[in-house]
Each structure stands twice: as structure tokens, then as C-alpha cells.
């Protein structure tokens, strides 16, 4: 065999090309299926015989199935193909002090099972047992066994410190602070487990199917019972050295005590200024109350009274004050408001926040409301779980056996 000239690239073997094409075909079916052979060939830029060979290989690996024929076509009905969603399942959980919400998705990312476990009132709570119970319920709803899960992502109101392997900022959720928790849950459920900050997951959901879709640099302000932030920088969640990036609750701000002055949770920094209890006081002072803070805020938004305008202006000013520090340092492309109170404030509060922010910072990123429907924490966690497994399975697709069928290289 002749030796390649110095500096020349070695030729790509047909097995490598087949693997590239097969993975591209499977990815295409995951993202856009079901599709016919001609459609697959057109999308990939390969010949129809090559598309047939790729489908045969993927069907032999039990990764692709036939979905029957497309109705309404003139002439011979075209056979449809899709990724076989049954080959893998993943799960996600959203953990709060009140409950654990769990969901299971199939290989194609469709939700097939859900379950909610109220947090048991226990003196010594066992998060491993609680997670196992929630996942068991979700798997039963999906008509699968717990052992069929390939990956689990847990969203929680805290952040894992990689330097100590402990959950920080989560003293209000007892039992979750012990070291090695993820490993203990993995042993119990029999699948890889990742624990991620809930607001980071909401930011991931926003980038994949929300107001920040496709953006590489944005910040998401979470305004609910607690206040926090997810930072997307360079297309990746920024967690910081100890996992605490975006934890705005203790951030010093004018008008609020510092941690040294008031160390109790929720009584200092941004949380004391703009957390749910603080905003409830503002609303009550202007004549608005409700069963929840979100209800009171919604009542103010729906009101034309002068007190409503004053209350909303004060709330917006407080939120903008915290955002101004982030904008000055990070200079993001976009700011997204999310969480139950942001949703209750709707566009009326959003526009006021943007107004106050623009009055105190030089950079002026757009301020938008979240566009993620449902539970954004579960949405982000499920996306992490299923894309991780999809990538694993895609990487396992080889060039297959030799075939007389022509092999084209995927274009683009």
C-alpha cells in the first residue's frame, strides 16, 4: 500500500463513512421523523440506495422501525421510518421542600410517565428512599420497570459543590446535604444520576425551547419563593468553582442586610429585598393580598388602581437593582424572567423591570418573559437526560457490515 505524502490526510475508510451516515440518519429521524427513504436521502445528501442501506443497518440494530405507509400520496405509498422510541428510557425529578415531581421520557424525548410524591414528614428524611419511590411511581405510570432507566437527572433548589461533593444552598431541604448522595442514589436505582441546580435546568429549558432558543449568552432570573439565576455563557451553563454561580439570594444589595448582619436564610441580600416574603410585604402595603404571593401579584397586575402601579413599580425597581450587577459584569445577550412570580407579573411587570434596568446600566439587553410551558425544571432535566443517552447510542453506531450498496458521504 502506498504511503501518504507528508502532511497529507489519510483517506477515510468506507466503514467510517457508513458510521457517519448511519448516525446522521438516526439523528435525523430523532429530530424530524417519521420520514420516507427519499426524504432521508434528500436531507442527508446521499443516494436512495445508500439511504436504504442505512435504514437496513439501523433496523438490524433495533434502532429504527417502520411506521407504515404515508396516506394521500399519488402512486405507490411511501414507507415511513422513525427512531424506535422504546429502546431507552430516562427520567428526571424536580425536588422541592413540598414534593418530588418525576417524569419518564422515551428515546425520542416523549413523556410517557409522570408521578408526584409529597415530601413525607420525617425527623430524619431519607432522600435516597424518596427518589426511589418517586421514580418507581413514574416508571409504573410509563409501564416500564425501574431497571430500564438509562439515566436520571435531579433538579433541586441548591447546587452540588464539586470540591466537596455536597449540596449547598439547600438547608431548607433536609437530608440532601450529605456527601456522596448521587452515588448512593445510583446504587439504589441502578442508573447514572446527576444532581443539578433547578434554575440552571430552567435556563437549559429556555435555550432549547424558550425565549433564549439558540442563544449562547443569556441570564435567567428566577423569581419565585426564592430568587436565583441561571447563566448561559458560550453555550454552556456557568456553575463556578463551587457550583454557586447565579446564587443571587445572598448577593449584597443596597437596602438589605448583609449575611454578617442577618445570617438567617432569606433575611439578607437579594432574597431579603426581592424574595417572595419581601414582595408580599410590598403588595400588602399597597392593598393587595391573596392565598399566595403570586395571587396577590396577579391581582395587582389586573388592577388599574394607583396602588397597583406603585406596588409593581417598587417590585420592578428591586428586581432591576439585582439584575444591574449581572448586566454590568456579564453583559448577556438577553435577560429572561421566569418563575411563578415572574409569570404572575406578566408583561406589565417585565416592561417595568426593563425600564428601571435601562435607567441604571449602560448595556441594554432585551428583557423577555419565559416561553417554556409546564415545569421548566423538569423540561431542562429531561432534555439533559435524554440527549445524554441519545449521544451514547449514536456513538455506538458503527459502520456496519460490508455491503454492495453504494456509500455516499453526508453533505453539509
Overview of the structural elements:
The protein contains twelve helices and 15 strands. With 412 residues, it is of the alpha/beta class. It folds into three domains: 14-83, Winged helix-like DNA-binding domain superfamily/Winged helix DNA-binding domain (Arc Repressor Mutant, subunit A), CATH 1.10.10; 88-200 and 375-392, ATPase, nucleotide binding domain (Nucleotidyltransferase, domain 5), CATH 3.30.420; 213-369, ATPase, nucleotide binding domain (Nucleotidyltransferase, domain 5, 2-Layer Sandwich). Helix 2 crosses helix 3 (48-60), helix 9 (293-301) packs across helix 10 and helix 10 crosses helix 11.
Which descriptors apply to this entry?
3 domains; 412 residues; five-stranded mixed beta sheet; globular; Nucleotidyltransferase, domain 5; alpha/beta; Arc Repressor Mutant, subunit A
Layout of SSEs?
Blueprint: H1 14-32, E1 35-36, H2 37-44, H3 48-60, E2 64-69, E3 79-83, E4 89-95, E5 99-106, E6 111-118, H4 127-141, E7 149-156, E8 159-161, E9 166-168, H5 181-189, E10 193-197, H6 198-209, E11 218-223, E12 227-233, E13 236-237, H7 269-274, H8 276-285, H9 293-301, H10 306-330, E14 335-338, H11 340-360, E15 367-369, H12 376-396
Parallel strand pairs: 4-7, 7-10, 11-14, 14-15
Antiparallel strand pairs: 1-3, 2-3, 4-5, 5-6, 8-9, 11-12, 12-13
Helix pairs in contact: 1-3, 2-3, 4-5, 6-12, 8-9, 8-10, 9-10, 9-11, 10-11
Amino acid at each position: 500500500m502506498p504511503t501518504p505524502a507528508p502532511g497529507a490526510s489519510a483517506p477515510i475508510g468506507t466503514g467510517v463513512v457508513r458510521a457517519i451516515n448511519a448516525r446522521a440518519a438516526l439523528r435525523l429521524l430523532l429530530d424530524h421523523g417519521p420520514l420516507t427513504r427519499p426524504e432521508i436521502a434528500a436531507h442527508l445528501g446521499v443516494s436512495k440506495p445508500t439511504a436504504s442501506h442505512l435504514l437496513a443497518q439501523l433496523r438490524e440494530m433495533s434502532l429504527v422501525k417502520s411506521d407504515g405507509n404515508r396516506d394521500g400520496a399519488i402512486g405507490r405509498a411511501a414507507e415511513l421510518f422513525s427512531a424506535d422510541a422504546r429502546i431507552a428510557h430516562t427520567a428526571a425529578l424536580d425536588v422541592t421542600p413540598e414534593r418530588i415531581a418525576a417524569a419518564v421520557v422515551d428515546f425520542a424525548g416523549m413523556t410517557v410517565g409522570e408521578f408526584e410524591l409529597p415530601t413525607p414528614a420525617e425527623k430524619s428524611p431519607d432522600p435516597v428512599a424518596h427518589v426511589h419511590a418517586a421514580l418507581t411511581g413514574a416508571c409504573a405510570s410509563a409501564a416500564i420497570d425501574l431497571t430500564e432507566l438509562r439515566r436520571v437527572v435531579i433538579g433541586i433548589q441548591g447546587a452540588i459543590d464539586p470540591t466537596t461533593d455536597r449540596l449547598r444552598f439547600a438547608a431548607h431541604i433536609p437530608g440532601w446535604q450529605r456527601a456522596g448522595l448521587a452515588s448512593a442514589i445510583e446504587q439504589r436505582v441502578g442508573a447514572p444520576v446527576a444532581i443539578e441546580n433547578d434554575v440552571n435546568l430552567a435556563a437549559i429549558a429556555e435555550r432549547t425551547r424558550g425565549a433564549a432558543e439558540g442563544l449562547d449568552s443569556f441570564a435567567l432570573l428566577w423569581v419565585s419563593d426564592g430568587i436565583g439565576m441561571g447563566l448561559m455563557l458560550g453555550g454552556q451553563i456557568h456553575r463556578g468553582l463551587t457550583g454557586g454561580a447565579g446564587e443571587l439570594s445572598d448577593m449584597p444589595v443596597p437596602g438589605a442586610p448583609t449575611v454578617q448582619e442577618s445570617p438567617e436564610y432569606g433575611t439578607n441580600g437579594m432574597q431579603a429585598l426581592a424574595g417572595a416574603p419581601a414582595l408580599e410585604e410590598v403588595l400588602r402595603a399597597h392593598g393587595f393580598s391573596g392565598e399566595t404571593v403570586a395571587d396577590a401579584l396577579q391581582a395587582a397586575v389586573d388592577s388599574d388602581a394607583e396602588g397597583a402601579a406603585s406596588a409593581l413599580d417598587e417590585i420592578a425597581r428591586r428586581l432591576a437593582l439585582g439584575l444591574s450587577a449581572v448586566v454590568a459584569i456579564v453583559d448577556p445577550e438577553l435577560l429572561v424572567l421566569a418563575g411563578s412570580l415572574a409569570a404572575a407579573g406578566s408583561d406589565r411587570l417585565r416592561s417595568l423591570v426593563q425600564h428601571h434596568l435601562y435607567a441604571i446600566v449602560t448595556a441594554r439587553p432585551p428583557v423577555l418573559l419565559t416561553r417554556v410551558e409546564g415545569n421548566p425544571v423538569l423540561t431542562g432535566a429531561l432534555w439533559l437526560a435524554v440527549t445524554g443517552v441519545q449521544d451514547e447510542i449514536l456513538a455506538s453506531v458503527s459502520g456496519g457490515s460490508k455491503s454492495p450498496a453504494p456509500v455516499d458521504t453526508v453533505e453539509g
